[in-house]
Amino acid sequence: MRRKIGAAVIGLSAACLTLVPAGGAAGHGYTDTPTSRQVFCAQGAVTDCGEIQWEPQSVEGPKGFPSHGPSDGTLCAGGNSRFAELDDPRGGAWPATRVAAGQNYTFRWRLTARHATTDFRYYLTNDRYRPDRPLTRADLDLTPFLTVPYNGRIPDATVSHQGRLPAGKTGRQMILAVWTIADTGNAFYACSDVEF
């Protein structure tokens, strides 16, 4: 009888292990300051968002941006086709957070599951950016204007970073925020439309 119970426990354990996704990060998160596209979808401020309206924290894709990571045109969805609505420029009509060039700004992430972290990086679009087209690397200054190293530490559930927005910016731009996970091959991506 003990052998049958032991075999059943081993079989059940093996079955449960196959349900755990391999290689995925345990961490999930999104930016809410400035408000990201996924938050606007989750709040219902933007409609026809697909699955992201229920999972604003799940924009996970390959890490290594800008040399690696999601392909151009899929950056806002982290290369994740489930959330392709985030890459749709909607004619440049996404709601935008008003900011000022050169101002000190507090950037905030909400982490629904925390994870060992390499860093948080913030990129801003350049003069070639057109808000009516999907975001590409050519649209961004590929040197982050703010990098916050974490060296493998686990951040709090709410993370705020003080930084200065680049000077000389005008009009509609976009901030791409990247949370790089330390012990997996993934990062989390968030696009925030801003108006200088």
UniProtKB/TrEMBL annotation:
UniProt KW keywords: Signal
Location of region: Disordered: 57-81
Domain named Chitin-binding type-4: residues: 28-194
Pfam families per UniProt: LPMO_10
InterPro entries documented for this protein: Cellulose/chitin-bd_N, GlcNAc_Chitin_IntDeg, Ig_E-set
Signal peptide bounds: 1-22
Protein name: Chitin-binding protein
